[in-house]
């Protein structure tokens, strides 16, 4: 019975569950639901495919980025290794360069004057001499005797007259100046070719330099390009002159370098002494708003002072005095009633410390200081030491030595050539520098009078070499072999050699003109000399003279 009842209940429940009212229209909706599901599944599949593609792209990008980073790391590592190798090569190159530079300086200190003066060196030079007929000894001797030798007496008489008048003029200048406010003028010093006895071309012009000093309590403090201060390459050979009070410390007080504060005062320098009125410095011929001596202001003051001095003593003389050249402020000319005239240069200079080196305001008739950086830059002149060196060496040479004759002949030829083709960058000072180098390099017996022809050829070949290399060193600056008897300042001996041809390195037009003038002078040398030479009998190779018919 229970079993049957259970079966009946199970049957009823089954019938109820499977009754169609519980699932109405089930068979009619199944196809629609399937189609929708399939559409959604396709969309989902497409979405998953796109997501897969995006993920694959991201993975690929990440892999590419990772490879790029790894490659960059490798490049950085290689660059570090390369940099280390490069730094090692750079350091090694610098060491080698420094060693070469030290060797060059040592070699230059000992042998820079000897370059180009040995016989072997002379043999490889002289390319410009090919095809040039060089005058023989007889022609040169006749030319020197006729054209040059007779001018020596004229120079001596002119020097004596000019020096006497200049002394009188400077004495009058001192009397018209205010001793408490104006510059103090010292005695003049004769320099240049007139006082070294090698000037040949007329008109003769005496060059006199006039040292001056500031009034008390002021003094000059000079700085040169080789004194340790930084000077650009184009200012080598120049210096500046600072006007200071004599009681100022030359090294500078700490109050000039440190801010002491408003409540602290320097016991050595008061506030009034540290700042001077600009008018006071201008009265001391300084550049505007500075303490540096102005060359233009100095020349204006000097011209005014000379004019006042001449007005005071003009009644004593039977001639007129005037300034002859506008571009050379110290150029003076004496005019006699007969129409004759005498020219001379009176140039103010400042003495460098206790030596005979001077800061010169202007170079008369010279291109040495044609491009002065500013009016506060003064060129240094060693003219006094050059004159002393020639006098000192002359005492050791044979009688009637040919060194002055060589310079006179070369100066004459150069002057004649410039009168034909116009002036060039080559000056008589360059020619004198060549002679000074050869005087130091060659033994005394090489300057005997009978060796005039050989030494003249040496000078021309030395000059040709310098023109080719664009290097002609100043004789005194950087020359450690200057005789101790001259008392030349050591600071200039230890300085780097000063190339006088440096201004022509970048100015090719002037350099080309200078070289062309030199070559033209060589080609015209025989003609220029023969023009001033008496007839010399012809000489056969067997030594027998043949007189003309």
UniProtKB/TrEMBL annotation:
Pfam families: Mab-21_C. GO terms for molecular function: protein kinase inhibitor activity. The keyword Thylakoid does not apply. Keywords: Cell membrane, Coiled coil, Glycoprotein, Membrane, Nucleus, Signal, Transmembrane, Transmembrane helix. InterPro entries: ITPRIP-like, Mab-21_HhH/H2TH-like, MAB21L/cGLR. The keyword Nucleus applies. Residues 38-72 form a coiled coil. Residues 404-477 form the Mab-21-like HhH/H2TH-like domain. It is found in: Cell membrane; Nucleus outer membrane. GO terms for cellular component: nuclear outer membrane; plasma membrane. It is a single-pass type I membrane protein. Residues 1-20 form the signal peptide. PANTHER family: CELL FATE DETERMINING PROTEIN MAB21-RELATED, INOSITOL 1,4,5-TRISPHOSPHATE RECEPTOR-INTERACTING PROTEIN. Enhances Ca(2+)-mediated inhibition of inositol 1,4,5-triphosphate receptor (ITPR) Ca(2+) release. Belongs to the ITPRIP family. This is Inositol 1,4,5-trisphosphate receptor-interacting protein. The lineage of its organism: Eukaryota, Metazoa, Chordata, Craniata, Vertebrata.
């Amino acid at each position: 019975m229970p079993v049957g009842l259970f079966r009946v209940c199970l049957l009823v429940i089954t019938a109820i569950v499977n009754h169609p009212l519980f699932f109405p229209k089930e068979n009619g909706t199944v196809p629609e639901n399937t189609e929708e599901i399939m559409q959604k599944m396709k969309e989902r599949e497409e979405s998953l495919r796109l997501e897969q593609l995006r993920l694959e792209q991201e993975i690929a990008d990440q892999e590419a980025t990772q490879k790029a980073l790894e490659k960059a790391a490798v490049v950085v590592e290689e660059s570090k290794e390369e940099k280390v190798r490069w730094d090692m090569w750079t350091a090694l190159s610098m060491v080698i360069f420094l060693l070469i530079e030290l060797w060059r300086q040592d070699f230059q200190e000992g042998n820079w004057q000897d370059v180009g003066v040995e016989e072997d060196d002379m043999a490889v030079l002289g390319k410009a001499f090919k095809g040039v007929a060089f005058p023989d000894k007889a022609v040169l001797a006749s030319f020197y005797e006729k054209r040059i030798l007779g001018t020596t007496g004229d120079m001596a008489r002119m020097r004596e007259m000019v020096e006497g008048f200049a002394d009188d003029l400077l004495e009058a200048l001192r009397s018209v100046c205010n001793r408490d406010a104006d510059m103090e003028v010292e005695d003049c010093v004769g320099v240049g070719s007139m006082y070294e006895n090698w000037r040949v071309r007329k008109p003769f012009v005496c060059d006199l330099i006039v040292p001056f000093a500031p009034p008390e309590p002021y003094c000059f403090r000079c700085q040169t390009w080789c004194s340790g201060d930084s000077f650009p390459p184009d200012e080598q050979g120049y210096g500046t002159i600072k006007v200071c009070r004599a009681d100022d410390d030359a090294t500078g007080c700490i109050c000039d370098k440190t801010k002491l504060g408003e409540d602290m005062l320097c016991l050595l320098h008061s506030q009034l002494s540290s700042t001077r009125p600009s008018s006071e410095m201008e009265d001391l011929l300084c550049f505007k708003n500075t303490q540096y001596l102005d060359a233009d202001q100095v020349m204006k003051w000097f011209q005014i002072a000379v004019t006042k001095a001449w007005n005071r003593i003009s009644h004593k003389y039977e001639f007129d005095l005037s300034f002859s050249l506008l571009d050379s402020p110290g150029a003076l000319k004496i005019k006699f009633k007969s129409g004759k005239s005498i020219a001379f240069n009176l140039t103010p200079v400042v003495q460098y410390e206790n030596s005979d080196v001077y800061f010169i305001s202007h170079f008369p008739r010279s291109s040495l200081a044609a491009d002065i950086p500013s009016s506060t830059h003064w060129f240094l002149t060693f003219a006094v030491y050059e004159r002393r060196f020639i006098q000192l060496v002359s005492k050791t040479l044979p009688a009637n030595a040919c060194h002055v004759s060589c310079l006179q002949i070369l100066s004459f030829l150069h002057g004649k050539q410039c009168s034909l083709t116009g002036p060039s960058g080559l000056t008589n000072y360059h020619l004198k520098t060549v002679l000074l180098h050869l005087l130091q390099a060659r033994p005394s017996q090489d300057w005997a009078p009978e060796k005039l022809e050989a030494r003249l050829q040496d000078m021309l070949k030395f000059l040709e070499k310098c023109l080719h290399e664009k290097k002609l060193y100043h004789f005194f600056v950087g020359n450690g072999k200057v005789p101790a008897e001259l008392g030349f300042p050591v600071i200039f001996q230890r300085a780097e050699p000063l190339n006088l041809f440096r201004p022509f390195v970048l100015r090719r037009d002037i350099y080309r003109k200078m070289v062309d003038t030199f070559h033209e002078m060589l080609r015209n040398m025989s003609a220029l000399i023969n023009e001033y030479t008496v007839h010399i009998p012809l000489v056969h190779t067997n030594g027998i003279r043949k007189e003309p018919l």
